[in-house]
UniProtKB/TrEMBL annotation, chains A, B:
CDD domains: NAT_SF. This is Acetyltransferase. Residues 40-175 form the N-acetyltransferase domain. It comes from Neosynechococcus sphagnicola sy1. It comes from the Bacteria. It holds the Pfam family Acetyltransf_1. The keyword Transferase applies. One of its GO terms (cellular component) is cytoplasm. One of its GO terms (molecular function) is N-acetyltransferase activity. Keywords: Acyltransferase, Transferase. InterPro entries: Acyl_CoA_acyltransferase (IPR016181), GNAT_dom (IPR000182), NSI-like (IPR045039).
Length: 175, 175
């Protein structure tokens, strides 16, 4: 996690990027990190170029989904979290996650993706911590998700429990 | 299920109650059944007396929750389903369920409750089928829920699968 140790230190003037640079992109920046020429920042702004999101999802091998539905899903998600890599004037989407919610008790996290370039460097963990922090700010106390087998331990490391008290995640799909 | 065989037969003139009677309560009636002096109807109308909902939840022993948050949760749920028992001019809330959703891909069903008087008579199953039908109408294809151990088989009977392909439902709660 050392690589990302400076994340969420926006209050530290030494690590804070110039306000004008951030304002170009979003007023919803919630965390940042500087590494060499690249700066990474987390945002809850949900105006995302859907082609860029598709590119990110392609990079991890996800099936393509109709953009019309992706647009609607973003619009009706309670929280959308993105990670942007910025080099000089170029920025690139390198991380994404979103959550549905009743705005009161429960949230469910979906579509957690980190670009392969940044996998294994603690960025996914940092993003999930940021998701939890944001949801807690909104007084959501029950945060849920459905984890593929290979990431169950990853989420366990973040404090997620599988099948607590025998509660089972269940799915219904059309025939 | 015989007891509920007439549910969702609103198109059958013989079983359809008078329109004026239904209109008193809701324009969102989606299913109905007549049994002796009592008529039961399903509704997606979300203007619910919160005290009545609390009474229903009390009847099954759920912990009370702040009404302010319950109101918000209803407002931001994608689908709210209620079952009403009507005898002459009296009506009583006897069933409830709701779902959060991104309005595009996923829905998660929460707070499924049937009044003890009506448990074991197929009403829960009928309500869940109605939930699935409504969500399918909205083109939601991934319907999820978190089932307590004693109701896993109930949901399995409705076509829900637990841990398909090793996917685990996981929970995070504040310390």
């Amino acid at each position: 996690m050392g690589f990302w140790k400076n994340l969420f230190t926006g209050s530290d003037p030494a690590s804070a990027p110039k306000a004008t640079q951030l304002e170009e992109y979003s007023t919803e920046v919630v965390g940042q990190y500087t590494s060499g020429n690249a700066r990474l920042f987390f945002s809850t702004e949900r105006e995302i170029d859907l082609y860029e999101l598709e590119e990110l999802c392609d990079a991890v091998g996800w099936s393509r989904r109709p953009m019309r539905k992706v647009r609607k899903a973003l619009q009706f998600s309670f929280l959308v979290m993105t990670i942007w890599e910025q080099r000089s004037s170029q920025r690139r989407l390198v991380g994404f996650a979103r959550a549905t919610s009743d705005h009161a008790f429960n949230a469910t996290i979906w579509d957690v993706v980190i670009h392969p370039t940044y996998q294994g460097k603690g960025l996914g963990k940092a993003m999930m911590k940021q998701m939890i922090k944001q949801l807690r700010t909104e007084d959501i106390s029950n945060i849920t998700l459905f984890a593929d087998p290979q990431v169950v331990d990853f989420y366990r490391g973040l404090g997620f429990m599988s099948d607590p008290e025998g509660i089972k995640g269940m799915f219904w799909y059309p025939d």
